């Protein structure tokens, strides 16, 4: 390449980097709008005053009500076939409460629902803008956008939102996640553009490997999914104690009632986070192994107890603990949930803590 | 541990190990849906009644001991202890990530020792400077793996038993199962069972007729996957341990133009596992043709390395053919089990030393160690023999060398490099003479002059200070009193640090890893479930079909699947509409379901 061509390329890259920054800021603005729309959804939703949990839990002994409780009819085929088809009666296993899922943040309120839909649309828009920002960044540095913590953060939040929108597209009941998600995404991006910002640049030689692409992209995806699982787990804990209180005749506060009534039942939240965590666990296992393969070609050993490796291992063992706890009697429910939160804590520490407090071979380009 | 404190709580009863099996009346139908070990209660005493006399006492003690050993083994291989050990393992791994470790950074450990005089001995006692090879950490993972083996063996056994036996017969009341469907049909019970059997077999269930019902099961791969996963963990651990025992790892610094032969004596430093044998070193040699580094010239990351590569010629065996290759950071040279990695680099300025008569006594490229990311480098030039001072006395010379590839300019700050590339190289030397002390038997750092050695005296300049000089390439510095001269030659070489690692067992570790992921995916994504279809003739002559499913874990998929299966069977044995009332709503069996549901809650 001639000198002039190099100059030109540098200029293009700088332009792209500027475009990327503008896009990231714009996406933050749209996320903020989405955030307010979700707030509006929750506010309008608070007008509905259906105490489903109490109705379901205090109906104990009332034969008619209990019979209605577990008997959920599943219509698996549309149209006329339903008439022809035998109905399937679903019954939850002994020991779990039969609480119906809440209606979602809008609480059945029409205006709330409208704001919820607006919020989701805005989230889609913000996601697309952010995605373009990440792609522009990648183009400006001519490599995958995860060479430093700034890039890691913007990619991470994009993927997390992508996971949420993906679940929505699959018609999963996850709209209740929206507010929590946009809040964290805004925090994450805020941190990225202020504290962690690193001007775009290329990689040090140790990072030139296609295993990097595999290892880091799966790590980011796992993190995003673990995060979604952790939100589910946290809400499960709240909802579960709420249900316990109601079942024991207690009277939770008005705010708690208003919010928690609208969330899915604790059993559903628990199941949701279990599925999410279980589904990515093999991918996380793969991530660690891919990392080991990369380390083997870069540093001559596949496992060296480097702090980052150690914490990835700790996270892995903690999630294995959680999965074991789920299949062990006496450890289901709240105890397992605590383990899941600890496991996610380990992941977070590995992501931020190790880079900032510990160091080791995995810190590049400043942070 | 006292016997009485190991209490049994309600959820430790065996049945609670299986969701859905908590309903006692499911009986055998819910059992063995997995091979997870069940928690067992401890009796008050294993010995039972003690017969009078010595024989009785001995027999009792024997029963007691065997009982306790067995109890201990059961505890160790229980899920609860596995959970505890897993938890301990992750907890135990933490200190090693926060405290400097001998294995990865011995220098940091030394600094830590200096800084924490009281803490360091305590850490030493606890093995906290080498956590991952400490007694307690090993104890945790060895116990975990004993537990794992103790868990896998019976589970594999149990699983093969399950594979050979048929799915258990239908429980008495199918309405109690998590997913249930029923309808009435004009087809005979035999026809319905036949139809159900066909449908289930088509869907690759293992199915057979038992009594008035068809029993079917699917998803055995879940269990197989789970076992494969746990076995793969053991394979990985063994491969890792094997690798550690036979591993060799050594470093060699090679200046451009020089070479290396893979024998013990050639290494700068060398570590090997306990079972390694010298003959195991792969026979090869290589020459470093040249080393290339490029650096970012502009922008905020100016000076960051962009490429490192070492062009080499190598040959395998005693007199193999010479081949060419380029070793890069992520691209080691592989020869058999051995890999040659490029791990470090630096400069090696060529220096010529002459004695007072002008005879060359030293001419070499001297590798220097970088001190910072801009390659400010330091080292020592040691002229061991061949030098005689102007008085004709045989002496040794030593120079403390300081080198910067890019000098800031005279009078511009200190002697620190501004850029890692060779833009403005300057070599600074401090001169000493006397006895270098290298023959004293104490191993010496080749990159350092032992200036504390009383026999090594500095040359003095006119003011009585240590004689020093700064040289540009090609310049010569004259030593005082006609003691000779030093020339900084124009030919500045680079050196590359290679790590040569030979570790067997990598293939096994990788195989284990792949098997672990495949097994895990099977274990987590495959549902193991049972389906029963019962057909009996009702009082009114129509056939009542009942269909129900039970899974290892509750899943939304199970009711869907039952719905699909029911629809398929229903096609062959459709609802009898003319005589009987609507199948849903208030039909006889459905009403029973409602009533039972109510009584159970
Ligand atoms: C080396 C540490 C271990 C790791 C990383 C590990 C990991 C896992 C994982 C990820 C699962 C899948 C969870 C699921 O299917 O829901 C699992 C299942 C299981 N593990 Fe382990 N495990 C370990 C040691 C053990 C030990 C020592 C035992 C026996 C005491 C054991 C017994 C089981 C059983 C019975 C299951 C199946 C549970 C079920 O059917 O759902 N594991 N393990």
Mind sketching the topology for me?
The complex is a heterodimer of chains A (367) and B (601).
Chain A (H helix, E strand, L loop, with lengths): L2 H43 L6 H7 L4 H6 L3 E3 L6 H4 L3 E3 L19 H32 L7 H21 L8 H17 L15 H38 L6 H9 L3 H34 L7 H20 L7 H25 L9
Antiparallel strand pairs in A: 1-2
Helix pairs in contact in A: 1-5, 1-7, 5-6, 6-7, 6-8, 8-10, 8-12, 10-11, 11-12
Chain B lengths: L52 H24 L2 H20 L7 H10 L3 H8 L8 H30 L14 E7 L3 H14 L3 E5 L2 E6 L1 H27 L1 E8 L3 E3 L7 E4 L11 E12 L9 E12 L6 E6 L4 E3 L2 E17 L5 E6 L3 E2 L6 E7 L12 E9 L21 E9 L21 E3 L9 E4 L4 E3 L6 E18 L3 H20 L3 E9 L5 E9 L5 H16 L15 H13 L1
Antiparallel strand pairs in B: 1-22, 2-3, 3-21, 4-6, 4-20, 5-7, 7-8, 8-9, 10-11, 11-12, 11-20, 13-14, 14-15, 15-16, 16-17, 16-18, 19-20, 21-22
Helix pairs in contact in B: 2-5, 5-7, 6-9, 7-8
The structure holds protoporphyrin IX containing FE.
Subcellular location (chain B): Membrane
Membrane topology (chain B): Multi-pass membrane protein
InterPro entries (chain B): Cyt_c_bgen_Ccs1/CcsB/ResB (IPR023494), ResB-like_domain (IPR007816)
Structure description:
Chain A has helices spanning 3-45, 52-58, 63-68, 81-84, 110-141, 149-169, 178-194, 210-247, 254-262, 266-299, 307-326, 334-358, and strands spanning 72-74, 88-90. Chain A has 367 residues and is an all-alpha fold. The longest helix of chain A has 43 residues, at 3-45. Mean pLDDT of chain A is 78; it is low at 1-8, 60-83 and 363-367. With 601 residues, chain B is α+β, with helices and mostly antiparallel strands. Chain B is 30% helix and 27% strand. Chain B is built from ten helices and 22 strands. Chain B has helices at 53-76, 79-98, 106-115, 119-126, 135-164, 189-202, 220-246, 506-525, 557-572, 588-600, and strands at 179-185, 206-210, 213-218, 248-255, 259-261, 269-272, 284-295, 305-316, 323-328, 333-335, 338-354, 360-365, 369-370, 377-383, 396-404, 426-434, 456-458, 468-471, 476-478, 485-502, 529-537, 543-551. In chain B, the strands form four sheets. In chain B, strands 4, 6, 10, 11, 12, 19 and 20 form a seven-stranded antiparallel β-sheet that branches. In chain B, strands 13, 14, 15, 16, 17 and 18 form a six-stranded antiparallel β-sheet that branches. Residues 1-24 and 579-601 of chain B have low confidence and may be disordered. Chains A and B meet through α3, β2, α10, α11 and α12 of A and α2, β1, β8, β11 and α8 of B. β2 (88-90) of chain A pairs antiparallel with β1 of chain B. Protoporphyrin IX containing FE (HEM) sits between chains B (34, 36, 77, 79, 82, 86, 144, 147-148, 151, 226, 230, 233, 520, 523-524) and A (281, 320, 323-324, 326-327). Chain B: Its main location: membrane.
């Amino acid at each position: 390449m001639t000198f002039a061509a190099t100059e030109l390329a540098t200029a293009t890259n700088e332009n792209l980097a500027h475009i990327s920054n503008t896009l990231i800021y714009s996406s933050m603005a749209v996320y903020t709008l989405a955030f307010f729309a979700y707030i509006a959804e929750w506010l309008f939703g608070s007008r509905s005053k259906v105490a489903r949990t109490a109705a379901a839990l205090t109906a104990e002994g009332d034969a008619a009500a209990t019979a209605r409780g577990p008997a959920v009819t599943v219509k698996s085929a549309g149209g006329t076939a339903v008439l022809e088809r035998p109905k399937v009666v679903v019954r939850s296993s002994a020991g779990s409460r039969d609480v119906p899922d809440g209606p979602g943040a809008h609480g059945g309120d029409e205006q709330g629902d409208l704001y919820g839909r607006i919020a989701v649309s805005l989230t889609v828009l913000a996601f697309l803008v952010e995605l373009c920002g990440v792609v522009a960044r990648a183009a400006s540095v001519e490599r995958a956008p995860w060479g430093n913590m700034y890039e890691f953060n913007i990619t991470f939040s994009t993927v997390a939102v992508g996971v949420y929108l993906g679940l929505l597209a699959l018609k999963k009941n996850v709209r209740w996640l929206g507010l929590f998600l946009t809040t964290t995404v805004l925090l994450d991006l805020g941190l990225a553009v202020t504290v962690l910002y690193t001007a775009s640049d290329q990689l040090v030689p140790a990072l030139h490997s296609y295993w990097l692409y595999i290892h880091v992209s799966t790590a980011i995806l796992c993190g995003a999914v673990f995060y979604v699982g952790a939100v589910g787990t946290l809400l499960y804990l709240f909802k579960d104690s709420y249900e316990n209180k109601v079942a024991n005749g207690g009277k939770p506060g008005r705010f708690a009632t208003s919010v928690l009534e609208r969330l899915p039942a604790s059993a559903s939240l628990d199941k949701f986070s279990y599925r999410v965590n279980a589904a990515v666990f093999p991918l996380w296992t793969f991530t660690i192994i891919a990392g080991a393969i990369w380390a083997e070609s870069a540093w001559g050993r596949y496992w060296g107890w480097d702090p980052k490796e150690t914490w990835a291992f700790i996270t892995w063992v903690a999630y294995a603990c959680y999965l074991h706890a789920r299949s062990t009697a006496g450890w289901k429910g709240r105890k397992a949930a605590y383990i899941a939160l600890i496991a996610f804590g380990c992941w977070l520490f590995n992501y931020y803590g190790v880079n900032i407090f510990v160091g080791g071979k995995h810190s590049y380009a400043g942070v | 541990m006292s016997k009485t404190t190991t209490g049994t709580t309600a959820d430790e009863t065996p049945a609670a190990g299986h969701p859905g099996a908590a309903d006692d009346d499911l009986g055998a139908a819910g059992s063995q849906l997995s091979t997870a070990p069940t928690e067992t209660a401890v009796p008050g005493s294993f010995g039972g009644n003690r017969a009078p006399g010595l024989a009785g006492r001995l027999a009792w003690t024997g029963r007691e001991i065997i009982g306790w050993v067995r109890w201990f083994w059961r505890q160790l291989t229980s899920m609860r202890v596995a959970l505890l050990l897993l938890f301990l393992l992750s907890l135990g791994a933490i200190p090693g990530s926060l405290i400097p470790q001998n294995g990865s950074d011995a220098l940091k450990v030394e600094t830590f020792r200096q800084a924490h005089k009281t803490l360091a001995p305590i850490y030493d006692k606890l093995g906290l400077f080498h956590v991952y090879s400490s007694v307690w950490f090993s104890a945790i993972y060895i116990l975990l793996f004993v537990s794992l083996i103790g868990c896998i063996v019976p589970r594999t056994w149990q699983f093969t038993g399950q594979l050979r036996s048929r799915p258990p017969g239908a429980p008495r009341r199918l309405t109690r199962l998590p997913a249930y469907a029923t309808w009435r049909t004009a087809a005979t019970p035999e026809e319905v069972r036949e139809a159900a059997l066909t449908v289930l077999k088509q869907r690759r269930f293992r199915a057979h007729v038992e009594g008035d019902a068809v029993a079917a099961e699917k998803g055995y791969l879940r269990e197989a996957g789970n076992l494969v996963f746990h076995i793969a963990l053991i394979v990985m651990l063994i491969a890792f341990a094997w690798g550690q025992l036979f591993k060799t790892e050594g470093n060699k610094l090679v200046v451009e133009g020089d070479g290396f032969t893979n024998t013990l004596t050639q290494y700068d430093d060398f570590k090997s596992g306990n079972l390694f044998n010298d003959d195991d070193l792969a026979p090869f040699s290589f020459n470093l043709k040249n080393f290339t580094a490029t650096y970012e010239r502009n922008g905020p990351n100016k000076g960051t390395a962009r490429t490192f590569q070492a062009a080499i010629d190598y040959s395998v065996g005693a007199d193999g053919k010479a081949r060419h290759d380029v070793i890069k950071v992520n691209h080691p040279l592989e020869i058999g089990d051995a890999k040659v990695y490029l791990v470090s680099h630096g400069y090696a300025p060529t220096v010529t030393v002459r004695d007072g008569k002008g005879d060359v006594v030293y001419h070499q490229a001297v590798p220097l160690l970088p001190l910072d990311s801009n390659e400010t480098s330091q080292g020592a030039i040691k002229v061991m023999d061949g030098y005689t001072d102007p008085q004709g006395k045989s002496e040794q010379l030593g120079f403390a060398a300081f080198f910067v590839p890019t000098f800031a300019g005279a009078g511009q700050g200190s002697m620190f490099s501004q850029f890692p590339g060779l833009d403005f190289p300057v070599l600074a030397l401090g001169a000493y003479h006397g006895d270098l002390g290298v023959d004293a038997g104490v191993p010496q750092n080749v990159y350092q002059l032992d200036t504390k050695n009383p026999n090594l005296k500095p040359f003095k300049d006119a003011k009585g200070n240590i004689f020093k000089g700064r040289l540009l390439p090609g310049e010569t510095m004259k030593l005082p009193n006609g003691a000779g001269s030093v020339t900084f030659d124009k030919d500045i070489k680079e050196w590359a640090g290679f790590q040569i690692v030979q570790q067997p067992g990598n293939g096994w570790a990788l195989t284990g890893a792949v098997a672990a992921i495949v097994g895990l995916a099977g274990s987590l994504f495959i549902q193991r479930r049972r389906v029963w279809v019962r057909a009996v003739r009702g009082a009114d002559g129509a056939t009542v079909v009942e269909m129900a499913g039970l899974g290892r874990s509750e899943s939304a998929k199970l009711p869907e699947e039952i719905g699909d299966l029911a629809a398929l069977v229903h096609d062959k044995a459709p609802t009898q509409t003319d005589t009987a009332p609507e199948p849903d709503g208030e039909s006889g069996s459905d009403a029973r379901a409602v009533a039972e549901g109510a009584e159970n809650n």
